[in-house]
Specification:
This protein is mainly α and 127 residues long. The chain has one domain. Helix content is 76%, strand content 0%. α1 packs antiparallel against α3.
Length: 127
């Protein structure tokens, strides 16, 4: 099995992979110190097995991001990140139940950005 990093991609495609990967790897690393806060969010949304699910989320961000970065089984890594991003949108950015206008607007904005990120991931899968 040969491993040619991004051998069939243009420089622009490689840059796109790196930008998308950066988001997930960076957030996977920087979110970990707030583990207990994330656990509370999972509990408040009645997520089953919250600790296990949260650890799976962190692992998905890191492994999926690295998969996209290194173009290694990228369709699996990007696919995992699509599922992760959609689930995160509904778990963390449920603006439709928020009442405070600024909070609602902020989470609507993040929700919309996550839709764009999902589109980028789908493009990565399709290339």
């Amino acid at each position: 099995m040969s491993f040619d990093l991004h051998a069939d991609h243009s420089a622009l495609q490689i840059l796109a992979h790196a930008c998308i990967a950066f988001l997930f790897v960076y957030r996977g690393i920087t979110a970990f110190p707030d583990f207990e806060d994330h656990m509370e969010t999972f509990r408040s949304h009645h997520v089953p097995f919250p600790k296990f699910m949260l650890l799976c989320g962190f692992a998905t961000m890191l492994l999926g991001g690295l998969s996209v970065l290194f173009d290694f089984y990228v369709w699996i890594g990007a696919g995992m990140l699509v599922v992760f991003t959609v689930m995160a949108n509904f778990l963390y950015h449920d603006f439709w139940v928020m009442t405070e206008p600024r909070q609602k607007q902020t989470h609507l904005w993040i929700f919309c950005n996550n839709i764009a990120v999902t589109g980028g991931l789908l493009l990565v899968i399709s290339l």
